[in-house]
Amino acid sequence: MMNLAWVVPLFPLCSFALLLLFGRKWKKASAYVGIVATLLSLLAALGVLAGRLGGTTYEANWTWMQIGDVTLTAGFSVTALNAWMLVVVAFVSWLVHIYSQGYMAGDERFSTFYAYLGLFTFAMLGLVLSPNLLQAYIFWELVGLGSFLLIGFYFYKEEAKAAAKKAFIMTRIGDVGFFIGMLLLFWQTKSFDYDDIFRAVGDGTLSPGMTTLTAILIFIGAIGKSGQFPLHTWLPDAMEGPTPVSALIHAATMVAAGVYLVAALFPLYEASEAAMMTVAVIGGVTAIFAATIGLVQTDIKRVLAYSTISQLGYMMLALGSGSYVAAIFHLTTHAFFKALLFLAAGSVIHAVHTQNIEEMGGLWRRLPWTAPLFLVGALSISGVPLFAGFFSKDEILAAAWLNGSVELFWLAVAAALLTSFYMFRLFFLVFTGEARHDGDAHEAPMSMVGPMVVLGVLSVASGYIQTPWFGSFLGEWLTDGAYHHEAAPGWIAVVATIVSLVGILLAWLMYGKRTVPRDWLSARAPHGYELLRRHYYVDDFYRWTVVALVSFISRLLAYVDRYLVEGIVRLVTGTVSAAASAGSRGQNGQAQTYGAVTVAGLAILVVIFALTGGYWL
Amino acid sequence: MSGTDIAFFLLALAAIAGGVTMLQLTNVVHMVIALVMTFLGIAGLYVLLSAEFVAVVQVLIYSGAITIIMLFAIMLTRHHADDKERQTTGGVWHRAVAAISVLAFGLAVYFGIRRLDFGADGSALAADNAREIGKWLYSYYTIPFEIVSVILLVALIGAIVLAKKDGKGAEDK
Amino acid sequence: MTLSAYLALALILFCIGLYGALTKRNTVIVLICIELMLNAVNINFVAFAKYGAHPGVHGHVFALFAIAIAAAEAAVGLAALIAFYRNRKTVQVDEANSLKH
Amino acid sequence: MSFLSLLVFSPLLGIILLAFVRRTDTKTIQWLGTAATVPPLLLALFAFIRSGSGFRLEQLDESYDWVRLANLPFFTDAAYVIRYELGIDGLSLLFIVLTAVLGTLAAVASLLIKVEKKGYFMWLLALEIGMLGVFAAANFIWFFLFLEVTLVAMFLLVGKWGGFERERAAYGYLLYNGLGSALLLVVIAVLVARTGTANFALLHETLHNPVAEGQLIAPLTAEARYWLLGGLLLAFAVKLPAVPLHRWLVRVHVEAPPPVVMLHAGVLLKIATYGMIRFGIGLFPDEFRAFAGAIAVLGVINILYGALLALRQRELKHVLAYSSVSHMGVVLVGLGALNEAGIQGAVFQSVAHGLIAALSFLLVGVLANRIGTTDIHRLGGLAKAMPIFSGYLLTAALALLGLPGLAGFVGELTAFLGLFETKPALAAAGALGLIFAAVYSLRAILDITFGHTRERYESTLGLRGAKESAASVSEPRVIDLQAKEAVPAFVLVALIVAVGVYPQLLAEPLATVLETMMNGLGG
Amino acid sequence: MNDVWQANWSMMTPEWIVLAAAIVLLLIDLVMPKERSRRPLAWGAAAGAVLALIATAAMIPADPVSILHDTFRLDGFAKAFKLILLAGGALALLLVAEWEPKEGSHYRGEFAYMMLFALLGAMMTASSGDLLTLFVSIELLTVSSYVLAGLRKTATASNEAALKYVINGGIATAIMLFGMSYVFGLTGTTNLGDIARELQETNEPYMLALAFLLLLIGVSFKLATVPFHMWAPDVYEGAPVPATAFFSVVSKTAGFVLLLRLFVTIFAAAPAEGRDPSSLLLSMQPVITVLAGLTMIIGNVVALRQRSLKRLLAYSSIAHAGYLLAGFAAMSWAMIDSLWIYLLAYVFMNIGAFAIVAHIVNETGSDDLAGLAGLYRHRPLLAAALGLFLLSLAGIPGTAGFIAKFYLFIGLVVTEPGHYVLATVMAVTTVVSYVYYFNLLVQLFFRPASLAPLRRLPAGLSTAVVLCALGTLAIGWVPDLAYDVLAQFGHFGDFLP
């Protein structure tokens, strides 16, 4: 089965191609093409996973391009990590395909949407299967393309246009880091293959400095794609895309690609203390940073987006702390509960036609399926014990503690507190209290509810693949059994639990019971509040620094181009034409002037000759 | 200082004086007359140089023929000629450039010729150089001689073509 | 009398002729100045015929040819001048300036 | 007639036939003009496919006596014999195929030309002959001869069929390229004069063989070789164009008729790549080393300069023009790397940019034809009215910004791969251009196709729609890409994808050429 | 005296033919009734030139001949350049046949035989190995040219042209003759070979150099190169078009013939004080180089501003003289060869261009370049032919102009050290010339057509245009046609007496 792993991404690609060509004709039926294709992918992925359970790996390569003696290859490999990722991706993708059938119904570009979904799924699966950095980079960018197309799906909205452009460009900035790192690595190791790179790391071919440099450069790519600080600003804006897209791309899969990349290159990172430190610090900072912004957002999807950023920060923190397993574990659980949350949010939006939480409220009864499922997701992400998020977050906190980075540990704990607070702020504002919107809100159709139910189940169940109580299945699987669970101090779990419960309580006091006034923060620290509401002015900072600088330079160059470069050309042509008119004016029609010029010429020649004694030049 | 030297100086003086006078005069006819002096001086020099035949030709052609046709041309075209009219062209710059160039050129050449000497005294030149010239013309220089005849033909026709007033009848055609 | 004296005289006359040809306004005088230049050259030839590297009468021949050609040129030049005069009613060379630039 | 001559001169038949068609019979002219570009296409593809299956391209060499410049007793018989020589290798073959493909597509796209179609096609075919000849020539004189054919043809095509400032653009083209050619001619003259041959292979041999060195007609000192190479590089830098010699390109891109720009940006600029590789590296490998650093720096400057200027333009054609400057910088980067990857990258980038630029200008032509403007600020939301067109335009933008899976990426990857081996810091600076490329291409294309429909041109759309059905003024209708326009666009996209997905397609013919070249470079 | 009778006069057949034709035509013109058209005279003159051309071609294989102490030489050089002169003369005479005098004047039979006389002078220049003969021959050409320039008697421009030509020509003659007098004085002989031998032992290098400069300036009048180039535009503009064509081709060729004959023979081996003491010519190379460079620059740059076709072609001919002078300045082994090829190409492309300009002037009465506007519309073939000539003049490959110019380039860079600066100047000024040549193309092909279509080309002009176009194309695409002819002359091994 594993030698057929390449078919996994092929199905969505076919779906993309077919829908691009015939989608306009098929209209509604397009959905089924997409759903079937992803289902087939999922089945194939499961087959690969099953094969992988047998404990073997598989790798196949074909020549992609030859450069002299160097052969660049394309192929696929099956490792524990990517077999697992295949399933997660294919699964979430399949669910989103199903969900979209309901959510996107009635859109005139319905088939286009499915085509784009197919393209994205293909790219994501391709990325996961890549056995070498170059191929990973190719799919990495294609994933970005899929994301770009889907964010800009409502192309006629200026905001969507801007968001799509921003997403592409911000991630591109990261990608260039990846690109540079990749090419540097190539000349150090003479290969793009992960295995060759790891070998070079192992036998010291790669100098420590270069290891750190390339690792950090590649990590910049991960920062861009995973929305880590400081390249995170595109992710909230990306919420302009249709909600299923947010669920699939900006929660479960693409943004996790950064985490996956670092995980896939983990031996490279492990070899460099500095790189690990960078990853951990960026992750930790992002976790708390995004969480604070999430506190004050009023757009339901933006809150979720900042929460995603924050959670991805957790994963990075885990990686940086050396716990590769914790990262992947959290990636998995997060994929499920965040997808659930987004889909539920989509369902809410579908019902009330607004994304502003101030205009929602009291939806608990109106949305009998969505509301509890959202609650499950919220509990899971908040790390309430027995939900999946609890286990994975606990694992990360433990990893951070065990790694000795106490500051980062407490940062993560603080972030956990904030997480549970803003999630329940959201919950209470949306589902409890009085309705602040007009019109009817109806529960979504079954095609939307169904996937949410499945995800709801998984948001609880996926936690049990790696628990301190039942055993660390995931860890052993990912490390081929080498994994052994380091016993974290028991108090960490307790602290985590308390923290999450405190967060929920605070949210309840403020938004549920309203004993604490809502403008508590804004009244007490208006500047701080504004700071958060404006996302720490990061966007503005970029606008006034990077964008302004580039704009200034390009304006400067435009002047250089128009006046200096063209000016020199003008000067030359002007000189020639002035010489022409001078020469023409000198031709004054006087025969004797002509003679005089001649005689003057003769005299000059003769005099020069007489004076220099014949030694010319 | 021998007699020839004195003769040379006188003749040279006459020639140069004629030229310089020509440059100074304002009346065109006077200018031509002044140049006749130069031409005659040159003819005298030819005699000093034992070139009697050339001297004769010089007198006939330059002092005679050419001067006459020049005078004719002046008369023919002298409808509104005014002696007070400006006799030199261009502005100061033009004349200055011309003068400086000519002067510089003259000096540079003079630098070369001031002590040019081949040590020949030219005594070999036969007294009857007309015969000698004839011999050269009809043997060695036959071809250029013929060409010159063609040139004179061309000049003849050309002068007629250019100077002749086209008859009314011809123009009507 | 030495060669260089004759050559110097020729040079002076040549320069006078040249200056006159470049500055005199009346075309007839310009032409006659050119004649003067040619005459100066003839002095050279005749002087070289007597005092040159290989004295001989062929110097005279050269001078005679030069005279003939000078005459031909003078004739054609005057004819051109008369044609010009017929159309423009002037003999001033600086008024022959309709062709320029 | 032999194969290569047939390939190069087959459009001549079209020119001759066209001469007999009535001026007003535009249908026949379009048909004939397009058909005339097909034989070279078929022949080129035939050669390409055959070469893939082990056919040795040397067998196609042709050589006939043409002129014997000097027949002095102290020269050998072979000296100063200039022959009519054509010959190709993998490198030329790639460019010939590119030319032939774009030639046909440009002829198809010339549907949009409305005036003086007869003359237009005659010169277009002449241009194609010139371009094919440039790549097929095996000797310097004939290379130059064909090069000047393109110069004259382009001058007329731009000057007569271009936009408002067409004559200025044509003169700009003429002067810059004329100067480049003139410089090239001096270099050619020196080489021919001092070696007595114009044949590439013989020149190569003579210049590298120390025994032959003594047989030179006049010596070529080491210093002279640097000057010669400098002259060559400068000449081709004008044609590339390298900053700051790029102003003509901008004007030509804007003013020339779009099908002509397809050929201009698609092929003519690539003559510079070809020339730099064939003559620069081919004839003066040792001297090239000394220039490599400067070339690489210039390449990076080109990339950034072009990209930063493209950011500011409000005219789509200007954006594309500066993007051409930027993309040709990648070629320089590859050459400056002076390793296999770099050279291969330069070639790849040339081919890729050829295809992409052709696609862009095909679409620009359609846009100008439909809306009457290509001003970004006056456009917007076009995806609604012209979804298929917008899709192609978006593809073009993605290709421009070097999206993997499309041709542009392969070129940039290989070129930068090359430079990262030799000058990593410089390469990293150049890689920043990738970001700007994304910014300018997305800005331009998204502003045209995405967002609100701008009021300013809504009336245009409405007006056009009104002509068809008076009732539907409220819903503006513009004709989307039609089949005859979509076909060339689709072919180009297909090629761009093909090259992007499987670059080995291009790498294979290049392999032997590169090997020879690397031997010349001493490993 | 015996020499005269024993000389091999048959070697002068071409000259005899031309002279006889001229005399016969002159007599016919005299006796012909006044009202009869004189046009057939021009055809007769052209026939005479063609006959002479055939006679010259027939003599190509003959051994070099010298008559009367080299006053007439028939070596490879003479034959080669006579071919060009006669071809140019014949083509110019075709233009004469279709000359349309304007402004109330009438067609003049003198035109034809005056041109033959001028041609005779040019031919004799090519054939002379004697200073005096050279002088007299070139004067025959010059004096005839004065008359040709003034033939449009009723037109002020033509009178003025003749007058300016005479004045400047007179000054040039005097300067040249002054130089010749010193050469004669230093050597005491007029035979070029003897002069060269005498000069090798001269101890007056300074005077010799002065003589060199005087001769150079004198000759530069005939070549119309800097500094004696300024008369050319005025005279070219004022003279009748066929005469202008003749001046720009035949006179210029004769000038270069004179240049080669005089300078190469006399000064190549003369001692000097300069950088190359063994050769005055080589040590004066920088002077010629500078003059050539200036000529190219001035000719091409000033041409940019011209609106009159004749004037534009005048400046272009100055520029071409510059290219040729550069070829001379290089002094490579290819010097004479490359000048010959260039002049041959120049005959075809320039007379072709003038033929069409003549038609435009005949038809529109003006030579403003707007007269070309839209020619392509009405007369596509004519426009194409003019386009070809212009491209050739610009030196675009595929035309004679390119082959010729390329050979000049070879000559410039093959020497050691090479004349790279001069080559670059030549290349750059060529590009400058693109502007004005292509400006004419713009008129031809881009501008809207004028209202009245031109009449068809008359027989003489169309013959000239066809022949010139064929020549331009043939040399451009099959250069061996020209090079094979050139090879017949054995690369002028018998040039030096």
Automatic annotation (TrEMBL), chain A:
Keyword Heme: no
Key word rRNA processing present: no
GO CC, any one term: plasma membrane
Record-level GO BP terms: ATP synthesis coupled electron transport; electron transport coupled proton transport
Domain NADH-Ubiquinone oxidoreductase (complex I) chain 5 N-terminal, first and last residues per copy: 64-114
Lipid bilayer topology: Multi-pass membrane protein
Keywords of this entry: Membrane, Transmembrane, Transmembrane helix
Pfam families assigned to the protein according to its UniProt record, in alphabetical order: Proton_antipo_M, Proton_antipo_N
Superkingdom: Bacteria
InterPro entries: NADHpl_OxRdtase_5_subgr, ND/Mrp_TM, NU5C-like, Proton_antipo_N
Coiled coil: none
GO MF terms held by the record: NADH dehydrogenase (ubiquinone) activity; NADH dehydrogenase activity
Transmembrane segments: 6-22, 29-50, 70-92, 113-131, 137-156, 168-187, 207-224, 245-269, 275-296, 303-329, 335-355, 367-388, 408-431, 452-471, 491-511, 594-616
All copies of domain NADH:quinone oxidoreductase/Mrp antiporter transmembrane, residue ranges: 130-419
Subcellular location: Cell membrane; Membrane
Family label: Belongs to the CPA3 antiporters (TC 2.A.63) subunit A family.
PANTHER family (alphabetical): NADH-UBIQUINONE OXIDOREDUCTASE CHAIN 5 (PTHR42829:SF2)
NCBIfam families registered for this protein in UniProt: NDH_I_L, PRK06590.1
Protein name: NADH-quinone oxidoreductase chain L
Annotated source species: Geobacillus thermodenitrificans (strain NG80-2)
Automatic annotation (TrEMBL), chain B:
Gene Ontology CC terms: plasma membrane
Membrane topology: Multi-pass membrane protein
Superkingdom of origin organism: Bacteria
Sorted UniProt keywords: Cell membrane, Membrane, NAD, Quinone, Transmembrane, Transmembrane helix
Enzyme Commission numbers on file: 7.1.1.-
Bilayer-spanning residue ranges: 6-25, 32-49, 55-76, 96-113, 138-163
InterPro entries: NADH_UbQ/plastoQ_OxRdtase_su6 (IPR001457), Nuo/plastoQ_OxRdtase_6_NuoJ (IPR042106)
Chief site of localization: membrane
UniProt similarity note: Belongs to the complex I subunit 6 family.
Function comment: NDH-1 shuttles electrons from NADH, via FMN and iron-sulfur (Fe-S) centers, to quinones in the respiratory chain. Couples the redox reaction to proton translocation (for every two electrons transferred, four hydrogen ions are translocated across the cytoplasmic membrane), and thus conserves the redox energy in a proton gradient.
Protein name: NADH-quinone oxidoreductase subunit J
Organism, scientific name: Geobacillus thermodenitrificans (strain NG80-2)
Automatic annotation (TrEMBL), chain D:
Keyword Transmembrane: yes
Chief location of this protein within or outside the cell: membrane
GO molecular function annotations of the record: NADH dehydrogenase (ubiquinone) activity; NADH dehydrogenase activity; ubiquinone binding
GO cellular component terms, semicolon-separated: plasma membrane
Pfam families the UniProt entry points to: Proton_antipo_M
One GO process term, biological-process aspect: electron transport coupled proton transport
Domain NADH:quinone oxidoreductase/Mrp antiporter transmembrane: 137-427
Keywords, alphabetical: Membrane, Transmembrane, Transmembrane helix
Signal sequence annotation: none
Compartments, as annotated in UniProt: Cell membrane; Membrane
Transmembrane regions listed in the UniProt entry: 29-49, 93-113, 133-158, 170-193, 226-249, 261-284, 290-312, 319-338, 350-368, 389-410, 425-446, 486-505
InterPro entries, per the entry: NADH_Q_OxRdtase_chainM/4 (IPR010227), NADH_UbQ_OxRdtase (IPR003918), ND/Mrp_TM (IPR001750)
Membrane topology classification: Multi-pass membrane protein
Family that this chain belongs to: Belongs to the complex I subunit 4 family.
Protein name: NADH-quinone oxidoreductase chain M
Organism: Geobacillus thermodenitrificans (strain NG80-2)
From TrEMBL, chain E:
NADH:quinone oxidoreductase/Mrp antiporter transmembrane domain segment(s): 128-427
Cellular location(s): Cell membrane; Membrane
GO cellular component, one term: plasma membrane
Transmembrane segments: 16-32, 41-60, 80-99, 111-128, 134-151, 163-185, 205-224, 245-270, 282-303, 312-333, 339-361, 381-408, 420-446, 458-478
GO BP terms: ATP synthesis coupled electron transport
Molecular function per GO: NADH dehydrogenase (quinone) (non-electrogenic) activity; NADH dehydrogenase (ubiquinone) activity; quinone binding
UniProt keyword terms in alphabetical order: Cell membrane, Membrane, NAD, Quinone, Translocase, Transmembrane, Transmembrane helix, Transport
InterPro entries found in the cross-reference section: NADH-Q_OxRdtase_suN/2 (IPR010096), ND/Mrp_TM (IPR001750)
Enzyme class name: translocase
Membrane topology: Multi-pass membrane protein
Catalyses which reaction(s): a quinone + NADH + 5 H(+)(in) = a quinol + NAD(+) + 4 H(+)(out)
E.C. designation(s): 7.1.1.-
Quaternary structure, from the entry: NDH-1 is composed of 14 different subunits. Subunits NuoA, H, J, K, L, M, N constitute the membrane sector of the complex.
Protein function: NDH-1 shuttles electrons from NADH, via FMN and iron-sulfur (Fe-S) centers, to quinones in the respiratory chain. The immediate electron acceptor for the enzyme in this species is believed to be a menaquinone. Couples the redox reaction to proton translocation (for every two electrons transferred, four hydrogen ions are translocated across the cytoplasmic membrane), and thus conserves the redox energy in a proton gradient.
Family per similarity comment: Belongs to the complex I subunit 2 family.
UniProt-recorded name of the protein: NADH-quinone oxidoreductase subunit N
